[in-house]
Amino acid sequence: MTTERRQTPRLRSLLGARARYNQKRATLDCVVRNISDGGALIVVPDTVLLPSDFELEIAQRQCCYRAHVRWRTGTRIGVSFESETVPETANPAEADVAMRLRMAERDNARMKSRIQQLTEAG
Fold first, then answer.
1. String of DSSP letters for 47-84
2. Is the pTM of this model over 0.70?
3. Nearest-10 Cα torsion for 8, 2, 50, 38
């Protein structure tokens, strides 16, 4: 018996989506198989190396989420969403800089945590 860890229920879906990463210079088409306010299950066409943080654009819903990979199994990837969607501002450069800053801050916190783990172990 599995324990449900999701805070919000997911709804089955079949939505076309696009993962955007590398400062929006790289994209990957994918399919959203289920979605909730807190995350989604996406399916990619092949076992590609998608970065752990990216933007998930769902054109049918006219929204874009900041996504973080929680698990991967072959072509299936479970992601969680940050609390807010990516702002669609009049100045896309400002939105891009803000998103990259938040991603850099998250990466910095992870590296600090990893350094602390390594120094305590060694």
1. -----SEEEEEEGGGTEEEEEEEEEEETTEEEEEEEEE
2. no
3. 10
